[in-house]
Design the sequence.
RNA sequence: GCCUUUGUAGCUCAGGGGUAGAGCACUUCCUUGGUAAGGAAGAGGUCACGGGUUCAAUUCCCGUCAAAGGCUCCA
């Protein structure tokens, strides 16, 4: 008998050679039907494999990430089986699970696959799934593996085998399809009840652009048709919230081919929203002891040679612009920090001056490959809510923590409740891409880890994600649809002060090198606005929205009264306008609802006589009549509530 | 930059080798209506741009630009 420890701590006994599936059956038939794989002593394996002896077992179902991944990985095999049936001779690269579904990279030879082929592939997948083929694990020798794929003529698999050691190679077979695979897999194909091919794209073999481009086929599968339907609804919802679409509908921003790809043009409403975000941040920063500075959009090339950016990014930047007479070279600024370093260096600094916190909403320009541009989320010119803190080494941790507080304030004010912080450290092996001394790096990495821990942040550590000049703390936010966005970042930098030879005089009357902290809670305003558009579906927090109220006169007779109300509201800083069109009230309401103005104030005979307005809330309906003071109170209450502590 | 797909009115889209279409938006007129679309008329296009094939190209072919999805990259 073997002893099996379950996640709740219970220990049960089973016969030698029992599998996780036997464990599941002993608990309930229903559970057994839903078990996709099992975690045995921390390792994910097939549920059907015999247990290795006394062990801990947790059964994985669709509700576990690992269960899902196993399900999707097996689905990738099913996709491959379908492709092999439909396109004989197709060669296979890799087919892993991803966040939403899976893909398989394939070499179709001269053939191509397009949207029109998806239905046939899906039908084939469903047909094969219905055969209830078991996923059969088979250990093979390297020689056997090579023989099999040589006969099959699949050079990609052969290359993968080349990187594996004899004795650790396994094949998995379902139906007639055999694949090189580490596993694990779900018990059989019948678990897959719904399948959809999502898209195709090019992908280089092993991510190397010098190598052959394969066709990547994306798919997603579910254990129930209903779940696929729900997923498709979610995608529709995401489409409706797409900031590019809403940006146009809400008159926030536009692009022009003549201005250039990736260079957003802010329309009045969008510019107003941007301005409000800037003011919000300015106010918060002022309270936190920052001072505003302002610097030009270009800077001499030598500035970036000093900073190291020229060497690192010069080739991948907008190229220098030159003066006609003197031939001086200037760069469009890709970041604000070198300019701020020069401000620090503009006069002698005392330890008593520190920390100095220079803030600037600086617009920077970075070359992005044309294929990478994406609405406001990825642009070539953008404005950072940038600031650089120059401090003494003993102040780093405290300053870092204050910045974390500022970031949390921002996230709260915008209703971004779900987030985690990522501590980005150096690659553990390859350190060639980083500049700066080992000692400074270690100090910086420790300061971040400590500050994050003291702030009680939920953090994950990622190696290899640091900037080339220092480690950083990145905030990853989840929006209302559960999608992840990388936002504000805080970076410790011991390197730039060194390169710019920045100094302050300490209490010991000696020169010391300050430490620099880069930080941008929003990251870029453009990207941040893209996030809040999608997060709120265009229904911005009341304090932020371009237009807080629209006044709808019942007929032309009440336009004057409406204008008066608008004027009154403007005097108390409520942003309001009047719909003066000769339309019926129903029409005005419909248009206001669609443009997502939070409050509609209706004025007709009744209201004019009683000196009130009838208030209607967007998406909610009629709130009844109230006087203007009542409405002001309502607006203020809502704003206080959404800003939290503010 | 690379792969796949797309580009027709401000927006959403139909069409198709021979005079360019719809709905919404816009303009004007009528209507003055109480909680999600009142009526009529009008204006609006080098069918992304450049080249080729053709008697004739918005339509077919090639190139460029832009956009969408993906790859690679991201100070």
Sequence:
């Amino acid at each position: 008998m073997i002893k099996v420890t379950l996640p709740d701590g219970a220990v049960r006994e089973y016969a030698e050679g029992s599998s996780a599936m036997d464990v599941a059956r002993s608990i309930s038939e229903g559970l057994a039907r839903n078990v996709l794989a099992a975690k045995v002593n921390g390792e994910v394996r097939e549920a059907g494999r015999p247990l290795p002896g006394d062990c801990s077992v947790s059964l994985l179902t669709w509700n576990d990430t690992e269960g899902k991944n196993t399900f999707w990985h097996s689905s990738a095999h099913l996709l491959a089986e379908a492709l092999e049936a439909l396109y004989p001779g197709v060669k296979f690269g890799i087919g892993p699970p991803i966040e939403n579904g899976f893909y398989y990279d394939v070499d179709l030879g001269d053939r191509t696959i397009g949207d029109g082929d998806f239905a046939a592939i899906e039908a084939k997948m469903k047909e094969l799934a219905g055969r209830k083929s078991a996923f059969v694990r088979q250990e093979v020798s390297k020689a056997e593996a090579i023989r099999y794929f040589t006969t099959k003529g699949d050079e990609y698999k052969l290359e993968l085998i080349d990187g594996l050691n004899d004795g650790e190679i396994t094949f998995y077979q379902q139906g007639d399809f055999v694949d090189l695979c580490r596993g694990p897999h779900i018990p059989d194909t019948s678990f897959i009840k719904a399948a959809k091919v999502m898209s195709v794209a090019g992908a280089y073999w092993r991510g190397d652009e010098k190598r052959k481009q394969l066709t990547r086929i994306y798919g997603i599968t579910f254990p129930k048709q209903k779940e696929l339907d729900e997923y498709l609804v979610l995608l529709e919802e995401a489409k409706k919230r797409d900031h590019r679409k809403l940006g146009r509908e809400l008159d926030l921003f536009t692009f022009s081919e003549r201005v250039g790809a990736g260079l957003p043009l802010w329309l009045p409403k969008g510019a107003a929203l941007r301005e409000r975000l800037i003011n919000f941040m300015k106010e918060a920063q002022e309270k936190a002891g920052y001072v505003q500075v302002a610097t030009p959009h270009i800077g001499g090339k030598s500035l970036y040679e000093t900073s190291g950016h020229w060497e690192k990014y010069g080739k991948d930047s907008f190229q220098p612009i030159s003066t006609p007479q003197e031939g001086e070279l200037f760069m469009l600024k890709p970041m604000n920090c070198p300019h701020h370093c020069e401000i620090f260096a503009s006069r002698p600094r005392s330890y008593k001056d520190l920390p100095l916190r220079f803030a600037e909403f600086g617009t920077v320009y970075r070359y992005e490959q044309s294929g990478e541009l994406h609405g406001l989320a990825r642009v070539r010119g953008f404005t950072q809510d940038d600031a650089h803190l120059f401090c003494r080494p003993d102040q780093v941790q405290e300053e870092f923590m204050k910045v974390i507080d500022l970031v949390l304030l921002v996230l709260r004010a915008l209703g971004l409740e779900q987030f985690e912080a990522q501590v980005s450290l150096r690659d553990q092996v390859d350190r060639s891409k980083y500049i700066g001394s080992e000692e400074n790096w270690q100090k910086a990495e420790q300061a971040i880890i400590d500050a994050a821990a003291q702030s009680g942040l939920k953090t994950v550590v990622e190696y290899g994600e640091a900037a080339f000049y220092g480690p950083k703390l990145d905030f990853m936010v989840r929006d209302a649809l559960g999608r992840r966005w990388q936002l504000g970042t805080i970076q410790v930098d011991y390197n730039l002060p060194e390169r710019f030879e920045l100094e302050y005089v300490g209490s010991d009357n000696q020169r010391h090198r300050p430490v620099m902290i880069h930080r941008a809670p929003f990251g870029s305003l453009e990207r941040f606005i893209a996030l809040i558009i999608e997060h709120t579906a265009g229904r911005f927090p009341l304090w932020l929205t371009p237009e807080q109220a629209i006044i709808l006169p019942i007929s032309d007779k009440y336009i004057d009264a409406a204008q008066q109300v608008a004027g009154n509201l403007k005097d108390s800083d409520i942003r309001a306008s009047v719909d003066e069109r000769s339309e019926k009230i129903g029409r005005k309401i419909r248009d206001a609802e669609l443009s997502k103005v939070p409050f509609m104030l209706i004025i007709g005979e009744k209201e004019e006589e009683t000196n009130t307005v009838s208030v209607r809330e967007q998406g909610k309906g009629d709130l009844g009549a109230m006087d203007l003071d009542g409405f002001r109170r309502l607006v203020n209450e809502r704003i206080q509530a959404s800003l939290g502590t503010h």
User: Anything to note?
Assistant: Chain A has a mean pLDDT of 88.
